[in-house]
């Protein structure tokens, strides 16, 4: 990768931190030659130097968080995370240290361990009623209902036509039968 207008700041910082090899320094110098407007920015950055101060804070250990400095809510969350296996090894060690040194917290931790919930054995017998159907299941159910309605109507129409045609012919046949038997 060579320096360009999108990444030149990274190259400048790497040069200031002395992280560039000879080839990369050559790329940077060639880039600056082709972009004289950035040469001033590069020179300004080169003049800036930061020196670490000699101030020493003697009470650093006072601001380090101790294992027992958790609020009740934080300790509760730590206990729950332990039960759910969500703690890092460092957090596990910290929790162990807390409950080893504080009797009240140990008792509270033991109560949390006893609070594991077990699912009830009650089964809802009619869960198919509340089960949400997929789009395909809805289409299938509606198509069955529609086909059933069409089939019912077709059966009723065919029965109607069959029986009405028999009723229409029956008086005529009866009259013909009477005529045939009475006059012959």
Estimate percent helicity: 55-70%
What's the order of the H and E elements?
A: HHHHHHHH
Mean pLDDT rating: 83
Structural class determined from secondary elements: mainly alpha
Q: Sheet with the most strands? A: none
How many separate helices? 8
3D shape: flat
Strand content: under 5%
**How many β-strand stretches?**
0
Uncertain regions spanning at least 5 consecutive residues: none
Radius of gyration: 45 Å
How far the N terminus sits from the C terminus, by CA atoms, comes to 119 Å
Key attributes of the depicted protein:
8 helices; single chain; 0% strand; 184 residues; mainly alpha; flat
Structure characterization notes:
- The protein is an all-alpha fold.
- Among the domains are: 8-47, no CATH class; 68-114; 147-184.
- 67% of the residues lie in helices and 0% in strands.
- It contains 8 helices and no strands.
- The chain has helices spanning 8-16, 22-34, 36-47, 72-83, 89-101, 103-114, 127-130, 135-183.
- Helix 4 crosses helix 6 (103-114) and helix 5 packs across helix 6 (103-114).
């Amino acid at each position: 990768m060579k320096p360009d207008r999108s990444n030149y700041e990274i190259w400048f910082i790497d040069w200031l931190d002395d992280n560039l090899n000879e080839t990369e320094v050559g790329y940077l110098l060639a880039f600056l030659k082709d972009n004289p407007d950035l040469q001033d920015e590069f020179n300004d950055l080169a003049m800036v130097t930061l020196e670490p101060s000699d101030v020493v804070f003697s009470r650093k250990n006072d601001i380090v968080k101790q294992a027992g400095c958790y609020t009740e809510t934080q300790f509760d969350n730590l206990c729950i995370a332990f039960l759910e296996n969500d703690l890092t090894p460092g957090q596990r060690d910290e929790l162990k240290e807390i409950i080893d040194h504080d009797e009240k917290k140990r008792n509270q931790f033991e109560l949390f361990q006893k609070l594991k919930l077990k699912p009830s054995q009650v089964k809802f017998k009619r869960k198919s009623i509340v089960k949400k159907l997929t789009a395909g299941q809805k289409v299938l159910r509606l198509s069955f209902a529609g086909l059933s309605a069409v089939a019912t109507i077709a059966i009723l129409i065919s029965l109607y036509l069959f029986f009405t045609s028999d009723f229409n012919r029956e008086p005529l046949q009866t009259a013909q039968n009477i005529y045939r038997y009475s006059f012959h």
